[in-house]
Write a structure and sequence with these properties.
The structure is a single chain. With 55 residues, the chain is mostly beta strands. It has one domain: Alpha-Beta Plaits. Helix content is 9%, strand content 18%. It is built from 1 helix and 4 strands. The chain has a two-stranded antiparallel sheet. The longest helix has 5 residues. It is globular and about 25 Å long. The protein starts with a strand and ends with a strand. The structure holds iron/sulfur cluster (2 copies). One iron/sulfur cluster binds next to loops.
Amino acid sequence: MAYTISTDCISCGACEPECPVNAISEGDDKYVIDAATCIDCGACAGVCPVNAPQA
Ligand code: SF4
Ligand code: SF4
């Protein structure tokens, strides 16, 4: 199971550089995770100020 970013995301961008496999990109109204690339490391959840990335 990949992590997903909830609608709580405020598009701060903090998670994108933390992802070791570059699975995170900016979407239209929030950041998004490519499910096929995510390795479930949890790094994005660790830096998000609003706890938007969910396992
Ligand atoms: Fe990237 Fe890890 Fe977050 Fe998956 S859980 S999007 S691999 S930082
Ligand atoms: Fe969105 Fe959280 Fe990533 Fe910031 S760190 S872009 S609020 S998911």
